[in-house]
Q: What sequence folds into this?
């Protein structure tokens, strides 16, 4: 089965840039999406199709993808950005749809 | 306002069956694909199953294939998940999510608050 690999945790101070990576063999051919999940809440889409930001998501959230690595960047992270972040994509066939294991972002 | 409201969760024994529902409102339901995504307690997200706008294309995660069945009733603006032969590792919060599909890719732009399924002997 297909897997997306994320670091379990990332920690930054307020105002610093946080980068969360997602590795997957099919990412050169498939888009990655990113979801933010705060404690006790449903996930929220923050980036789709590698680098597109939905309306209402702050500009400090951006995405990129190169080769087998997709990256979510939070420029000037705020305390309110503390959350679990999940990447999502599919395998090369498009059949296996998977989330990464999630990355806990700590901002303090 | 887009709303997705899940219902039907509960506590049951291994081997049991359950039907989850998701009531959609605030948008044209039959314009969108839909999915179920689950989250075991303290764990990450897992895509479970998805269905396109008219039910003509359906997919399942390997972990539930042959046991779960997704369906929709566009006249009732509702999504369903029939869960059979339930196991302890099916214990999770089950989310209903709306999909945006464009040119061979899709993403989940709206989520419900989830309904909890607990399988325990």
A:
């Amino acid at each position: 089965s297909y897997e997306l690999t994320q670091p379990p945790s990332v920690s930054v101070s307020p105002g610093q840039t946080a980068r969360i990576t997602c590795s997957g063999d099919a990412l050169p051919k498939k888009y990655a999406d990113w979801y933010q999940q705060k404690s006790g809440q449903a996930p929220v889409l923050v980036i789709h199709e590698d680098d597109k930001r939905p309306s209402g998501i702050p500009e400090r959230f951006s995405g990129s993808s190169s080769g087998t690595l997709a990256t979510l960047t939070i420029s000037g992270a705020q305390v309110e950005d503390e959350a679990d972040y999940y990447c999502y994509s599919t395998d090369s066939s498009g059949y296996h749809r998977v989330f990464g294991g999630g990355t806990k972002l700590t901002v303090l | 306002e887009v709303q997705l409201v899940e219902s039907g969760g509960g506590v049951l024994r291994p081997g049991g069956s359950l039907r989850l529902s998701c009531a959609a409102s605030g948008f044209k339901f039959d314009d969108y694909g839909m999915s179920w995504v689950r989250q075991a307690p303290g764990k990450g997200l897992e895509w479970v199953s998805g269905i396109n706008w008219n039910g003509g294309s359906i997919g399942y995660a390997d972990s539930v294939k042959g046991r779960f069945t997704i369906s929709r009733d566009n006249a009732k603006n509702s999504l369903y998940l029939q869960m059979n032969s339930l196991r302890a590792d099916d214990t999770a919060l089950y989310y209903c999510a709306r999909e945006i599909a464009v040119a061979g890719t899709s993403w989940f732009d709206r989520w419900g608050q989830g309904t909890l399924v607990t399988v325990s002997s």
About this structure: The interface with chain A takes residues 37, 44-47, 50, 59, 61-62, 95, 100, 102, 104-105, 107-109, 111-114 of chain B (CB under 8 Å).
